Amino acid sequence: MTQFEEQASQELYEKNLITENQFQEIKEYRSLNIFSLNVELKLLLSISVLMFTSGIGILIYDNIDSIGHIALLSILFIAICGCFYYCFKNSKGFQKTETKFESPFLEYLVLTGNVLTCIFIGYLQFQYQAFGTHYGLATLVPTIVSFVCAYYFDNKSVLTIAVTGLAAYVGLSVTPQDIFNESSIMAYKSLSYSAVMLGVLLILWTIYSFKINLKTHFAIIFLTFALHIISIASITKMTDYYDYYSSWLLFTIFLIASSVYFYKISHQLKSISLYVFMIIYAFIGLNIFLFRIFENIDFNDIWELFILLLPIYFIASIVMFIKLIKNFNREIAK
């Protein structure tokens, strides 16, 4: 890696892209062998937040009879107040543009306070039915709190929780294990319409945010959720063999429109993740579409040819995928 960096610096110098003084400064800096622990420290902070919030949950579960509900809620409330007091005291306040904090500790303290707030509201609803039979409010209120915290403190982790809560409020299952449960979108295929509407709403909000220049760096999060939600919902509906109204064709159009949009926006934002997942979902959708078109055709006479061509098709798809990724990297590097 060091040899590669030295060669890169030498090439820049030979092409007169950097001066001799800059070249010497780069060599002197690299000779110090300084390395960053930023990623490692953030990973430890993330693990700390996860362990702390998990510990709170275990504490509630193990001591719910001996300590009492009021005491546990009081402890949670005090912890939440402490977190947000420190955050509000040391934050720079709300800003429309991206905000950088001097210490990453504040960012993870906001995340801790937000997660504890979600636990507090959920516990309150479960034990005392604070929202009565309006169970959706128990999801909507933490979602609103998360959105406020995400925008005020400029926290992407909290924004992820907020969008997840919004999807849960709409009725979508967002955990991997729910894919196999009856509560998931795979079981209740009517939720596909709600999922597409939610995805479109996230896209429209992103467009509006760019228009008013409001936290535009949040766009990648909204668009990532929108891409996955719309694509999974469309693919799910395309595989619905109990669909008597041929709405799978409508969702094929949704998937095509989604693929075209995310193809363009991935180039604009230079986002390789959006581009890769767009290709994967488009490829899956294309294969499902071809299968549904040709499922009623009798291949008895040419099934041997079909089997021979199948490996070639997949190999060609892999080669095309690699070529598309290389072209994308070349285009965004310009």
UniProtKB/TrEMBL annotation:
Signal peptide annotation: none
Domain of life of the native organism: Bacteria
Domain DUF2157: 11-158
Pfam family, one: DUF2157
Keywords from the UniProt entry: Membrane, Transmembrane, Transmembrane helix
Keyword Transmembrane helix: yes
TM ranges: 43-61, 67-88, 108-126, 132-153, 158-179, 191-210, 217-238, 244-263, 275-294, 306-325
Name of the protein: Predicted membrane protein
Organism this protein belongs to: Flavobacterium johnsoniae (Cytophaga johnsonae)
